[in-house]
Write a structure and sequence with these properties.
mainly alpha; 72% helix
């Protein structure tokens, strides 16, 4: 169970760093589509959402998206 939760967080950070997503909402949708049904619960906190949003913005600046 914990391993799956960690996998969801790792995937979220990886997606945020890709430069393909604008916000945590886009990442959450992608994770749910990939079968991570617990993503909405695990990405429900303000801190993780802020971190993902920051990472998305930073990655988009780097890729020029």
């Amino acid at each position: 169970m914990r391993k799956k939760n960690l996998e969801i967080f790792e995937q979220a950070v990886k997606l945020a760093g890709s430069g393909k997503y604008e916000s945590w909402k886009d990442i959450q949708k992608e994770l749910v589509q990939k079968g991570y049904r617990k993503a909405p619960d695990l990405l429900g906190g303000d801190k993780i959402r802020s971190v993902l949003d920051f990472q998305c913005a930073h990655a988009q600046k780097k890729t020029g998206a």
